[in-house]
Amino acid sequence: MDTHVHEDHGSHPGPKAYVLIGLILTIVTAVEIAVYYIEALDDWSTAIIVPLSMAKFLLVVMFYMHLKFDNRLLTAVFAACGLLAIAVIVSLVILFKVLPYQPLG
Amino acid sequence: MPAAERGEADLMRYAADVDHHYTTTGIDNRKLGFWVLIGSESLFFGSLIATYMVYRGQSTVGPFPHGPDGLLDIPLTSVSTFVLLMSSLAMVLALHAVQVNNRRGAMLWLFATAFLGATFLGFQAYEFTHFWHEGLTLDRNLFGASFFILTGFHGAHVAVGVVWLLVLMTEAWRHRLPAQRALSVEIAGLYWHFVDVVWIVIFTLIYLIE
Asked: What does the angle CA B170 – CA B175 – CA B179 come to, to the nearest 5 degrees?
């Protein structure tokens, strides 16, 4: 089945939305840095900073890279590779830092 | 035929090609292909990040990244992170300007994106030089090896992006970047934003999490 390529730029956000996203990204980054410096949050800093970074990642990918508005196939391609990359990171960390070292033989 | 008219004729033919382009997915092949490239780049950076995570805290000799004598300068890197985030904003504004045939806006925002990218590279060059003077080299310890490889490859990607943006800006200056060629800018934007999201991950894992 052949499908006509249709690039509908009208479905992309406009400059106001882009500036708003930029403002949110700036505020979230400022919060991350503040959390890093607040000693009372030392025990919680990772638990706070990682979700904030994930939110920034998703905002850029969804709005600036237009995945929220584009064909779902593009999201599937990126998500599949991204999840594979995360699996590689988690597997290697478990292999080298969690599992006990057992010499061969 | 004068060069300007010949260029315009080329663009009209190009636009006609785009209008009559058919694919089985309904997505332009160049855009789909570039997303596949971004997928492979995700795995590339994933492997470098995995290496950094495995070697994290394993250095037996200094200098170390965190702690009382830690090398990492969080305020400085926070500023460079902000600069890169704002370059992504400039990039989407450049794309919008091209889509609405605003040539001056396109040139301005493409230059702003390239300038902010070059500024980020300046921060990185300063940081690398400072670390070098403090004794951190590729072969000094595991932190040095994994840090320079990961952030160095990211910086190389930023440098490629800056050159790409300057080429697009030149195209706009020569009246060769009309709305029909917005996809060329959108693909460059995809690359630029990908470099940005990789830095979001690097900034969190290396700088903010001790």
From this structure: 105
DSSP B68: T
- To the nearest whole Å, the CA of A104 is away from the closest chain B CA by 21
How far are the Cα atoms of A60, A71, A78, B104, B178 from residue A84, in angstroms, in the given order? 20, 21, 10, 42, 38
Residues of B in contact with A50 (CB under 8 A): 204, 209
Angle of the B29-55 helix axis to the A72-93 helix axis, nearest 10 = 20
| Length of chain B (residues) | 210
ipTM of the complex: 0.88
Chain A residues close to B196, C-beta within 8 Å: 60, 64
Q: Quick one: tokens of B26?
A: 């309904």
Q: For B83-139, how does the pLDDT look when each residue is reduced to its tens digit (9 = 90+)? A: 999 999 999 999 999 999 999 999 999 999 999 999 999 999 999 999 999 999 999
What is the sign, positive or negative, of the torsion defined by CA atoms of A68, A13, B43, A92? negative
- Cα–Cα dist B167/B185, whole Å: 11
B106, B172 in Cβ contact below 8 A?
Answer: yes
Beta-carbon contacts of A26 under 8 Å, excluding residues fewer than 6 positions away, are B82, B85, B86
Six token digits for residue A49: 């900073």
DSSP string across B134-199: TT--TTT-HHHHHHHHHHHHHHHHHHHHHHHHHHHHHHHHTT---GGGHHHHHHHHHHHHHHHHHH
3-state SS, residue B8? helix
Q: What is the value of pTM for the model shown?
A: 0.89
Closest by CA to A20, choosing from A74, A59, A68, is: A59
